[in-house]
Amino acid sequence: SYELTQPLSVSVALGQTARITCGGNNIGSKNVHWYQQKPGQAPVLVIYRDSNRPSGIPERFSGSNSGNTATLTISRAQAGDEADYYCQVWDSSTWVFGGGTKLTVL
Amino acid sequence: EVQLVESGGGLVQPGGSLRLSCAASGFTFSSYDMHWVRQATGKGLEWVSAIGTAGDTYYPGSVKGRFTISRENAKNSLYLQMNSLRAGDTAVYYCARSVDTAMGLDYWGQGTLVTVSS
Known about the structure:
The complex is a heterodimer of chains A (106) and B (118). Chain A is an all-beta fold and 106 residues long.
């Protein structure tokens, strides 16, 4: 079965740029979606199809996908961005989630 | 306003059954794929099942043969019948919608807690 690998945690200084990676075999050939989840809340879609932002998601959130790695980039990180982030792909008629990355804003 | 409201969670004994429901409003329910995703306390997201607009269903190996997803478009409702429940099925269960696999799950409910314990 397909696997997605994310770092357990990423730290970023306030106002700096955070990058969260999602590794998978030839993931560049798949559509990657990213979700933000804050404690006690449901996940929120922040990037779909590699690099597209849903309505209401700040431009500070961007995504890329190539080769074996997809990346979620959060520019000018704010305290409110502190959350868990999950990548997701559709593979062989199943949805696969990465294990999640806890983003800490220092 | 799009709303997804789950219900039906609770405490059930190992080997028991439970049926979850998800009431949808604010969009044309029949035009969307629907999903169940679960999250054990302190753990990550795990996809549980999906149903397409044509009624096609999908499951991961961990629940195949035990869980059944269904939808009733006339009632704007999604269901998850869970049988032969195990302690490892304890989690918050979310319902979510998607246009298709290229668009991600764009709206989620707030979840309902299922606890499997004796």
